[in-house]
Write a structure and sequence with these properties.
The protein has 253 residues and is of the alpha/beta class. Helices cover 42% and strands 14% of the residues. It has helices at residues 16-29, 44-48, 60-64, 70-73, 94-99, 107-112, 132-140, 154-171, 191-204, 217-221, 229-232, 237-252, and strands at residues 3-7, 34-38, 75-76, 82-85, 121-125, 143-149, 177-184. The protein has a seven-stranded mixed β-sheet with strand order 3-4-2-5-1-6-7, with helices on both faces. Helix 1 (16-29) crosses helix 12. The two termini are 12 Å apart. Bound molecules: adenosine-5'-diphosphate and magnesium ion (MG). The site of adenosine-5'-diphosphate has 17 residues, from helix 1 and helix 10.
């Protein structure tokens, strides 16, 4: 049975999609069968795996609102053990559709149920908001991984996110665990980075992943070639760091 893990943070640009793509690919290379669900209407995870999002005939949107069978939306990618449920801008309409459905927060759980036997891990790339799409992702998940940039307002955002996690636990999913907090675009030479990390460690010591993800130009280039970093620049520091985090995840869930 697949473990479902969401990459979520309501702040945009913190590395959710980069992490979702590269952890998924790294896990695939570690021999795990992986499905990446692109739950963001921007479709960046879809494009980052080399899929032309505007040519999709069906997407995660159709499966969410039960217009298409979940399995029919899954694409095999050219990367080892990695499949994707792609999305595009049509998913932006889903919030409204979902709000009119019965069990509006449990549609993603229902969508993924027929796929659980086919994968070891199902990763969900969430949009930069705490709306119904993210709530659906969290309600379906065993764990949440929070990518964070060491910025001044990061902690404020983190407490807001934790409130949502608690609400989702109460209302829909008591089993939702915090798998970990991942520091991204990490620059250990900056004083602010050190301070923010210490502050997070004060409250969430055992949740912080031991490995951080450094800032790397290759990581930001890879999506424009439609490739995860481990296929684009295998020995790049970012590739090795994501591989190390993937191994940490294996130990945690
Ligand atoms: N470790 C990193 N080093 C350099 N650039 C990064 C790194 N992680 C993410 N980026 C870049 O930062 C931007 C935002 O990252 P993204 O993963 O799209 O964030 P989110 O999904 O949270 O909005 C993208 O342009 C991405 O390529
Ligand atoms: Mg994103």
């Amino acid at each position: 049975m697949a473990k479902i893990i969401s990459f979520a943070n309501q702040k945009g640009g913190v590395g959710k999609t980069t992490t979702a793509i590269n952890i998924s690919a790294a896990m695939g290379r570690l021999g795990k069968r992986v499905l990446l669900v692109d739950m963001d209407p921007q479709g960046n995870a879809t494009a980052g795996l080399g899929i032309t999002k505007n040519k999709l005939t069906v997407s995660v949107y159709d499966a969410l609102i039960e217009k298409a069978d979940s399995k029919s939306v899954v694409h095999k990618t050219k990367f080892t053990n990695l499949s994707i449920m792609p999305s595009n801008i049509l998913l932006a309409g889903a919030e409204l559709d979902l709000s009119q459905m019965e069990n509006q927060a449990l549609c993603a759980k229902k969508m993924l149920a027929p796929l659980l036997g086919d994968y070891d891990y199902i990763f969900i790339d969430c949009p930069p908001a705490l709306g119904l799409l993210t709530v659906n992702a969290l309600a379906a998940s065993d764990g949440i991984i929070i990518p964070m940039q060491c910025e001044y307002y990061a902690l404020e955002g983190l407490s807001q996110l934790m409130i949502t996690v608690r609400k989702v636990r109460q209302l829909y999913n008591p089993n939702l665990d915090i798998t970990g907090i991942l520091l991204t675009m990490y620059n250990k030479q900056l004083l602010l980075t050190k301070q923010v990390k210490e502050e997070i460690a004060k409250y969430y010591t055992e949740k912080l992943f031991k490995n951080e993800i450094s800032r790397s130009v290759k990581l930001s280039e890879a999506p424009s070639f439609g490739k995860p970093i481990c296929y684009y620049a295998r020995y790049n520091k970012g590739a090795l760091e994501y591989q190390a985090v993937a191994k940490e995840i294996l130990m945690r869930i």
